[in-house]
Amino acid sequence: MTTTKSEGAEERELKFRCEDMSELRERLLQAEAERVSASAKEVNFVLDRDAELERQGQLLRVRAQPGGATFTFKGPARFEEGTKIRAELEVEVDDHETVLAILRALGYEVRRRYEKFRETWRLGGVLVCLDHTPIGDFIEFEGSSADQVATRFRFAPANAERRNYLELYAEYRRGHPESPEDMVFP
Fold first, then answer.
1. pLDDT at 150 (0 to 100)
2. How far apart are CA 130 and CA 120, in angstroms?
3. Rounded distance, CA 97 to CA 81, Å?
4. Which structural domains are found in the chain, ordered by start?
5. What is the reported pTM?
6. How far apart, in whole angstroms, are the C-alpha atoms of residue 121 and residue 156?
């Protein structure tokens, strides 16, 4: 196991809808960003026990991805000029099924599942994540200077999406009631 974020760590994130991923990739190359990982499918399992975490604005997630998984706890979000800030604890694990089994033994159940294809770039100290989801494409800027990099790429921090993928999908389903309960690819 490798800890990727520890106690006291904060996630600083800006998320935007992205209409043209290829143009954005070109701009990342022009900015000499480093491609950290090619697009790969992630399956995210969100767990809760009697909605206790949801009521507190917290999130417990297991993300299965090629080569392993990430177990994450996120605290309640607050916003500063569009930037979502929240405590985040993460650990990388080899086997997501074992983590899910441990959590189930503690009374947690998978409440939601969502999928996306994520491609990751790094520009300075900021991760730039290109996410292809069943409800469209998004770009996330994560790091202490996320707002500066977002602005450099012509995204206004004040216009950042405040909702997470679960909230975005819930809204999508209101207009598309035939959609599956979870945000998954057909």
1. 97
2. 6
3. 38
4. 2-175 (2.40.320.10)
5. 0.92
6. 20
